[in-house]
Design goal:
Helices cover about 40% and strands about 20% of the residues. By secondary structure, the chain is of the alpha/beta class. It folds into two domains: about 120 residues, Rossmann fold (3-Layer(aba) Sandwich); about 80 residues, Arc Repressor Mutant, subunit A (Orthogonal Bundle). The protein is elongated, with a radius of gyration of 19 Å.
Amino acid sequence: MFSTDAATDAATDAGRVHRGFCRLRYRSIRNGCYHANFHCMKILLIEDHTPLQQQIQQMLDRQGYVCETASSLPEALEKSTVYDYDLLIVDLNLPGGSGLEVVRRMKQSKPQTAIMIISARDAVNDRIEGLDLGADDYISKPFDMAELMARIKSLLRRYRFDGRQSLQIGGIIIDTQKQEVTVAHNLLDLTKTEYKLLLFFASNPGRVLTREGMAEHVWGDHMDVADSFDFIYSHIKNLRKKLRQAGAEDPIKVVYGVGYKLEIP
């Protein structure tokens, strides 16, 4: 579904990332973050039980999500304040305090962020309080990973795409289930990175997106202090060229000195 140069595309970016990130605050370049799936969605997993945290993170990586982790309340509050996420998965019983504090602060400061609670099966009162604070869903331990994944996908579809499985931008159709982009019923040959960027644009129509913001969202927090984001320009240039060659009106416009934005034709 992606072009054959996708591996080279990812490897080249990985090299650029590696060379630019000696000053990272969160040093967590993870295998699998370049895998394109539905989503280029960014998740903060707040869970202190290391084996469960690793299991969930590996599942999310395989599914193509950018997944950051936090293991205590102070770390969770810091990351959720500094960075933007599409979804927070919050365990309620954390070192340093209750995950309910994360839910409370996020729904006050960033209400557009989806929140799923992980709780013990007998923690009924905590679950009720979390939902009252604005959490969108919960799942009780022990749970099946397939059920967790299904709930995550459903929640993100509801928040980002109004429940839809496909998006249309003029003559461009993005099928998020098949991970395909078509123009006039013709399948575009996109790399993984190009697909991720197009989906990110489609999720933010009319909004000016900086190169730093796009890199940080698509590749994770380790992108935010890179010395250069010129490779983002290269990917967007190639994406726009492929859209035009397919006969689509190019919806990606340059905002000089700032970044790019997607305009609906």
